[in-house]
Amino acid sequence: xxxxxxxxxxxxxxxxxxxxxxxxxxxxxxxxxxxxxxxxxxxxxxxxxxxxxxxxxxxxxxxxxxxxxxxxxxxxxxxxxxxxxxxxxxxxxxxxxxxxxxxxxxxxxxxxxxxxxxxxxxxxxxxxxxxxxxxxxxxxxxxxxxxxxxxxxxxxxxxxxxxxxxxxxxxxxxxxxxxxxxxxxxxxxxxxxxxxxxxxxxxxxxxxxxxxxxxxxxxxxxxxxxxxxxxxxxxxxxxxxxxxxxxxxxxxxxxxxxxxxxxxxxxxxxxxxxxxxxxxxxxxxxxxxxxxxxxxxxxxxxxxxxxxxxxxxxxxxxxxxxxxxxxxxxxxxxxxxxxxxxxxxxxxxxxxxxxxxxxxxxxxxxxxxxxxxxxxxxxxxxxxxxxxxxxxxxxxxxxxxxxxxxxxxxxxxxxxxxxxxxxxxxxxxxxxxxxxxxxxxxxxxxxxxxxxxxxxxxxxxxxxxxxxxxxxxxxxxxxxxxxxxxxxxxxxxxxxxxxxxxxxxxxxxxxxxxxxxxxxxxxxxxxxxxxxxxxxxxxxxxxxxxxxxxxxxxxxxxxxxxxxxxxxxxxxxxxxxxxxxxxxxxxxxxxxxxxxxxxxxxxxxxxxxxxxxxxxxxxxxxxxxxxxxxxxxxxxxxxxxxxxxxxxxxxxxxxxxxxxxxxxxxxxxxxxxxxxx
Length: 677
Description:
Helix content: 25-40%
Strand content: under 5%
Distance between the termini: 38 Å
Structural class: mainly alpha
Radius of gyration: 25 Å
Strand order of the largest sheet: 1-4
Number of strands: 8
Largest sheet: 2 strands, antiparallel
Shape: globular
Order of helices and strands: HHHHHHHHHEHHHHEEHEHHHHEEHHEHEH
């Protein structure tokens, strides 16, 4: 039993079944074992690869809520109705097994096993020229599999750090499997990922068969820059701690660090990030999707009024230069979703934080607090539209404002934003902070009023990231902004309708002010310099609602200082909204009941004039006194079963396992972490 269990964890219980799909119109795979004879034609390789695409982060078919546009919830950018245990030391606990989806799933290798099986079967046949079809396409699908193994390992790197590097399908031999369970230092894992991406780039076509619904060479370059930047900054900002090889308290084997120099590794990864990012960035810097700054994204015929807006909600994303890969939905094939039911109607149970909103510059390039910015704090009393006037276009077009259009109906009517969702509805519909998400919202009420009619696409990789990756890696490497980074930064600011001169922003930046609402103002408990901060600000503002924030905060080690941080939303008390949201009988819909837990608005006497979503109720609420953080949460814990199944001799002796736990975490299920540096 022990042998079988280890094999399942390291290698996967079975292979993913195959379909004849050749694009990202995913359907549930059948459960079957693929015969070795299967890999004899180009179509076999294409089908096998596309059936692993389900691991990419996209809108899941059939899903409700706001899906990927809520993936920044539980950060300083965005808040859901409920809180995450990552901000409550002690509530996030070690799981029992890998089947514990939230607490143990990081320690499984199913996707990696499927990739290794592919290589075991396909590479010998490819080298022997025994696969029929287009040579170019055969090579492309082999490249896709190298990419997917790299992607799988990168997920492991972000979640657990050090991990085993497995490149073949292992035999059911206890000694072999136990040895293969040993974790390798994270920088080795990152280098392995880059090497797999190098192979992917060698094999992949520039234009993928099936268009942008499949992986391409540029997608591989983009992921390569992401991986390299992640590892470089992780090593830099966690340097000297238990979270990097050789740091104080690192649980790994120092014998694995022969010749290791962390500064050399940091430099290497920064160089690689710049090199890969530039390949994509140079193609896009003069070809960014146009932002017309139109207040609405579509007209009543669903024609785009602003390509930058519709890039995130179009049914066909193929023509957008920045979209390197996207997932398509098709009602005729019963591949649809339901996220427009919330995006076009209410708040989707989420909202931008006031800290995020305040990070957006005025159009003259100055922070809102700076002399000469033109911003007036009194605007917050006058509502959302007034608060966002003269600001960076991105926060204006991607936030629901007073009077904005929700959708156009088939009968010719127009539905407008209803801000009463701030206090009505449930966890899936509330405008949690008042600043409701508009990014990804279409205007066709057919998708909003009927179930399973949503066909807006889902971006998998957006090339704009390459510009931001290069900018950050360049400054981290040299302490300067080179000509390439300069051109990238100015292009992004120009598209956002902000003065392109970033130096005036840097000169006007007050880091103590920025720290009030931005965890990224810090690394390892210390404020960063104004130039680096503004590079991080640009990344934050460009990627709102795209699920990048938590990974950034982890690699920057930007949460050490979080201790009692209150998530804030828009101003309600003393604003134009106070007392205006009434029910059919004319009664005020706003209810304050902090201690009883039946209210829908935070108390002015307890929380002040701004909405504090996590101070509306004191009942069963571990974050009422604010977000708190312990460094152990930068990595996920391995489940107890990992140690039991790899223990030598008595399985009850978890400490005899060849696998070590992540810093601060115990090995026993149901326990939270201890303090760690």
